[in-house]
Design goal:
Helix content: 10-25%
Structural class: alpha+beta
Largest sheet: 9 strands, mixed
Distance between the termini: 99 Å
Oligomer: single chain
Amino acid sequence: MLNYSQHNPYEDEQGWSGKLPSWTWLLQFLLIAPILIIIFGQVALLVVEGTAQTGPDGGSLLLPYMLIAIFSIMLLLPLGPFVHRITYHIPSFLFLIFIGTLIYSLVAFPFSANNRYKAYFIQTVDLETGQNQVALFGLEDYIRSIIASIPSAAGQSIDCVSREEIRTGVQQCSWEGIAPRVVPNVPSGVPPEKGYVDWLSYNVSRIPGQNSARFVISGQNTRACVLRFDRPIKDFNVLGSSKDDRFDAVPEVGSDQIRLWHRDWDQAWTVDVEWPVGDGKQPGEEGMEGKVVCLWSDDNFEGVIPALDEIRRFAPAWSAVTKAQDGLVEGSKRFMV
C-alpha cells in the first residue's frame, strides 16, 4: 500500500494527488476547457445574435434569457473540477465586474449605432380619397422616440394601435406622411395625388344566384396585388395559374385574403371568388365587401418613397427601418359586390 503521509493533497482532493506537482491542475484545465469553451462560445454567440431582436419584435423575452442562461452554465462547466484551486481574489474581482455591468445594463440606453433597434415601415394610400398614412411598427416607447425626430410628423397627433393581423406583439404608430411617387404617371411638379386613381383599376361582376364573383385587377408599375375580404371566403381560382390538386386553395376555416403575383409587369389578374352561404340565407342573397390592394417596393432611387427617405435621414442613429409586409407602399380601393 502506498503511503501518502509525506505529501499533503490540496484540501479535500484524493490522496494520490499529493504526489503530483501543484501546477498540474493548470495543465489539466488547458487540456479540457479551451475546446469546450470555443465550441459552446461560438454557438452561444450565434444563438444570442439570432435572438437579439426578439424583444423589439414583440416576442417573449423568456427564450433569449433561457438560452443565455443555458449557454452560460455550459461555458462554466469546465471550471467545475478546478474551481476550488482558484483563490478568492478572482471571484471577488468577477463579482465587482458583475455589479458594474448590472448597473450599466439597467441604466444605459439599450440601443446604439452598432446595436440598432429594428422598426417596421409601411405607407398606405387610399387611392379614392387621396389620404395616405405612414406607419412604423414596434414597441411604442421607442417608436414614438423615432417619430419625434421626423419633420413631417411634427405637430400631428400620433395614434398607436395594435395590428395583430400584420405583426403581433407590437404597436402601429401612424401619421399623415409625404405622398409617394411609386407610379410616375403625372408630370414633374404635379402632386402625385392627382394620379392616384389610375394606379389601380379593377372590375368585379357578380354571378347571379350564387355567392361568387369575378374580379379583374390591374395595377400600374407593380407585379403584386392583394384581395382582402371583410369576412372569410371558401374558395377561389386564378385564371391561368398553376394548381396543385394535393392541397385545397383555401383552408377549412376560410381565408380573408388572396395574394396575387405576376412575373411580368402591369399584367391583369382574373380571379373567381366564392364565399360561404350564411345561416338562414340562400345562395345569391349575401354580398361581399373588402379592398383591392396593390403593392410597391421600388426603393432604388431617392424620391420614389419620400416618407421612407425622410425617416432614414432624420431617424436616430440607434434605429434601423425595414418593411413591415411584402410592400413598402400599399394603394387600395374599396369594393362591394
